[in-house]
Write a structure and sequence with these properties.
This protein is of the alpha/beta class and about 350 residues long. About 40% of the residues lie in helices and about 15% in strands.
Amino acid sequence: MWNQTKITELLGISYPILLGPMGGGFSTPELVAAVSNAGGLGSFGAYTLSPEEILEAGKAVKAKTDKPYNINLWVNDVDERLKDYPAEELEKVKTRFKPYFDELGIPLPDLDPNIPSKFEKQVEVLFEIRPAVFSFIFGIPSKEILAESRKLGIRTVGAATTPDEALALEEAQVDAIVAAGFEAGGHRPSFLRPAHDSLTGTFALVQQLKSKIKTPVIAAGGIADGRGIAAALTLGADAVQLGTAFLATDESNATVLHKTKLFSDESKYTVLSKSLTGRLGRLIRNRISEEVSYETEVLPFPLQTRLMGPLRAAAIEQGKTDMINFWSGQNAVSLKYTKAAELMAALIAETGTHLVS
């Protein structure tokens, strides 16, 4: 049976189809439950949430499903460069972005570069919730955290953008590894080398990892339908992870405008840019991503996010869509479904057709 893999056995799910853990407020208990109830693994991206908010989200998910699900966090959620960040550099970057604020008639925000990490406190709450899976990006948790996960029976899943990162994750004895191809929407979760030096495509990366490691591999990036799933499994992946296809469904917390963009011709044009958050991520190109080149100095993450937050809010309110970041993978052209359950049913049926025929 095509749907019986190392990942389905490991995670206790019926199909090797995982929901990409969308942070930034896009995840909802309804979306997580829809995927888990259909036999996949629902995932909740929680890196922006306070411990209290994560606890409430966990309760909400458990009220909608008794199936396995995943909570995702960022190991490194604050750039090292923020320590002792020069005030003159902060003002220089703010001045660079001031014309956009002036155009929308809003002031530049006051910014405090002293931003503490939330990760360890978030992990404490995650251990209280005890989801079936704890996935993480931008690094590897401490040996103590991984040991406690094993003790509590929580499976761990890390993300790699290169074979070296996968080897480091395997050495840390994680249970599974996401092969994060550059086609994926959202942030590039590189942690050993800069993101712009870690741009291998999904299918090449899957094959590289399968030749180097024994840990089960989950393919992610540019997969949006049954054909993509079948191709990934044929190349050796033990499961797949889809983000953009589910981001476009009614159950996600993306705005109506964002979902409309995903189904439009504009979704054909995605770019990698650090202009919106300070870390490299894939989104539908917009005016800011086009005008602010990769070489342009921006604030470290998440201070750049805090700079751009008021701009994004004002742009939405004023209908200035060319200033709004709409995250998307490279294969939004394959999107068809607006209901998560219908999407899951189609993915299962299409994959079976391609692999059995």
